[in-house]
Write a structure and sequence with these properties.
single chain; 252 residues; alpha/beta; TIM Barrel; 11 helices; binds 2-phosphoglycolic acid
């Protein structure tokens, strides 16, 4: 049985004061002992420690939006997996399409980051997804196949047992366009069978595959009924805790 994960990615929004206010509001809204889903928020690096202080004894977990794969050294501006773990992070988002698009991330760097995350006991959320052009030219499955195979190259199923995947069609991120639930389910099913082919049935059955791209309170229910969708990665709609709570609480 896969426990759904509802994850919020705050991207480059909120200074520390705003981040703390948002976290306090979220914790106030979520009844103590909620265990129906796992919940995660990923503030910017600068607010991780302060947000952790707010959520540490609640059911909300902390996530980071990126990491660097080296343990330490002369890598100005980078943050290692151990540094993230020391702030209280449990999850880390890896290979988000904005990082691939604006910061030159490749499947090869994604692969190094996945390894670094798991070695530091962080749960990686590996983001994959096709562009509008790739979908139009019917390359969706080949693009995803390559992102998964190269991103997880040389890893074993046992090593990857905590891995979370997030299918985020690039054309649906921040655009207000959501994949239809059928489109999303088709891709999630494809990803699960790909994981089965590469890593075996056990990982395929247990791996959580999130959907991301313009998830909102009014479309979450339809998304979550799909059998291969095990949660969501929410950008814009996670910035306001009341809105995010309506997503978390979709089956109320
Ligand atoms: P969005 O972002 O919900 O604002 O579309 C999703 C994401 O980038 O993870």
């Amino acid at each position: 049985m896969r426990k759904p994960l509802i994850a919020g990615n705050w991207k480059m929004h909120k200074n520390s004061t705003k981040a703390v206010e948002t976290a306090i509001r979220l914790v106030d809204l979520i009844p103590a002992g909620t265990t129906q889903h796992d919940i995660m928020i990923a503030p910017p690096f600068t607010a991780l420690s302060q947000v952790y202080e707010i959520i540490k004894s609640t059911c909300v977990s902390l996530g980071a939006q990126n990491l660097y794969w080296e343990k330490k050294g002369a890598f100005t501006g980078e943050i290692s997996s151990e540094m993230l773990a020391s702030t209280g992070c449990k999850y880390v988002i890896i290979g988000h399409s904005e990082r691939r698009q604006y910061f030159g991330e490749t499947d090869e760097t994604v692969n190094k980051k996945i390894n670094a995350a798991i070695c530091a006991d962080l749960i990686p959320i590996l983001c994959v997804g096709e562009s509008a052009q790739e979908r139009e030219s019917e390359k969706t499955f080949s693009v995803l196949d390559k992102q998964i195979k190269n991103g997880l190259d040389n890893c074993s199923g046992d090593f990857l047992k905590t891995l979370v995947l997030a299918y985020e069609p690039v054309w649906a991120i921040g655009t207000g366009k959501t994949a239809t639930t059928e489109q999303a389910q088709e891709v999630h099913q494809f990803l699960r069978s790909l994981i089965e082919k590469i890593f075996g049935n056990q990982l395929a059955k247990s791996i959580r595959i999130l959907y991301g791209g313009s998830v909102k309170p009014d479309n979450i229910k339809n998304i979550m009924v799909m059998p291969d969708i095990d949660g969501v990665l929410v950008g814009g709609a996670s910035l306001d805790s009341d809105t995010f709570y309506n997503i978390i609480n979709f089956n109320a």
